[in-house]
Amino acid sequence: MKLGKRLTRLVQQVNRHYDHIWDCCCDHGLLGAALLKQHPHSCVHFVDIVPQLMEKVTRDLTDFFPATSDLARWHTYCIDVRDLPLAAHIGSHLVIIAGVGGDLMSEFITELVKRHPTLSLDLLLCPVHHTYTLREQLINLGAELHSEHLLEENQRIYELLHVQINRSSTFIGYPLSLTGKALWQTDNQAQQKIAQRYLQQLQHHYQRKAQGGDKAAEQRRQAYQQIIIPHTHGLND
């Protein structure tokens, strides 16, 4: 099955080797299957809380990626993301989470860090909403930014964050901000229009909440009001 824009971009972001990649994206195993093809020396772990879904993923993986050696290339789990057995697998880890809001994502990550306080953990995140909440908690956990992007799929705009907690010696990281910095740096007019629309959506959302007396929303509205998207020069200028 062909991947959509969001899953395709997630695959593209995995541009280095990890010993273990955890697909927690509620995507019927599509992302993990693509990563199995792209990263033949990585072990991909497929995770979902729905038993019937994981049974089908296991059958599909057995058909399309049968075992060729004693070293397993994939595993499936019907568990909560908080319960990922990271400590049972030695090596570098990338946990990919998408398809849930930033509030729930924050809970997952906070619990993982609590259970694995010294583990260097790469996270590739694409929340459906509440990105400010997610960024706030990532900063509290000491996360460093590798990259951040905007992407649009089916008329919905998403933030894609690649961060690391408990930085490894090889990781090149930058401070993570509450509202994003590189997120708003565009190199073409199409991407600039996406950024402008997304910023307007955030400003209007928090303005509506602030009008209802939400003080936290007012602070967030003011933070997004400070953002200026640089003008991108194109052929039609």
What topology does this entry show?
Blueprint (H helix, E strand, L loop, with lengths): L4 H9 L6 E5 L5 H9 L4 E5 L3 H14 L9 E4 L15 E6 L3 H14 L5 E6 L4 H10 L3 E10 L2 E10 L8 E2 L13 H23 L3 H11 L12
Parallel strand pairs: 1-2, 1-4, 2-3, 4-5
Antiparallel strand pairs: 5-7, 6-7, 6-8
In percent, how helical is the residue content?
25-40%
Q: State the end-to-end distance.
A: 40 Å
Structural class: alpha/beta
Rg over alpha carbons: 19 Å
Q: How many distinct folded domains?
A: 2
Mean pLDDT: 93
Low-confidence stretches: none
Q: What is the architecture of the largest domain at the second tier of CATH? A: 3-Layer(aba) Sandwich
Do you know the CATH topology of the largest domain? Answer: Rossmann fold
CATH superfamily of the largest domain: Vaccinia Virus protein VP39
Largest sheet: 8 strands, mixed
